[in-house]
Specification:
With 100 residues, this protein is of the alpha+beta class. The chain has helices spanning 45-56, 61-72, 80-93; strands at residues 14-17, 21-26, 29-34, 40-44, 59-60, 97-99. The chain has a single domain, classed as Alpha-Beta Complex (Outer Surface Protein A, domain 3). The protein is built from 3 helices and 6 strands; from the N terminus they run ββββαβααβ. The chain is globular, with a radius of gyration of 13 Å.
Length: 100
């Protein structure tokens, strides 16, 4: 899937962590291991925040955008959507997230 189409406007997919993913987060960073790929990843900033949020419960891209705007105290038009959509695509490509 192309990053620019992931979580875009009108996307109603529900995003969640893949069951084979194990992770730990602290101070805005996360380390993630995937049993499926055997890869370990270090995530920071937006990617780590997304992982933490989806570790609590599956969410749509719109729910993530609203939560990010509230957590960062930014208006939604501040580019939050672009960062989230790009990060969702990367995390999906790494086989850490799945959309249903």
């Amino acid at each position: 899937m192309h990053v620019e189409t992931v979580g875009g406007e009108g996307d109603t997919s529900i995003w969640g962590l893949r069951p084979e993913v194990h992770w730990r987060a602290w101070d805005g960073a996360a380390v993630v291991y995937s049993d499926a790929t055997g890869n370990t990843h270090y995530l920071a900033d937006v990617a780590a925040w997304i992982l933490e949020q989806l570790g609590k419960r599956p969410m749509t891209a719109a729910e993530l955008q609203t939560a990010a705007a509230e957590a960062l105290e930014l208006p939604p038009e501040q580019g939050v959507a672009d960062s989230l959509h790009a990060s969702l695509g990367v995390l999906q490509d790494l086989k850490l997230l799945a959309a249903s």
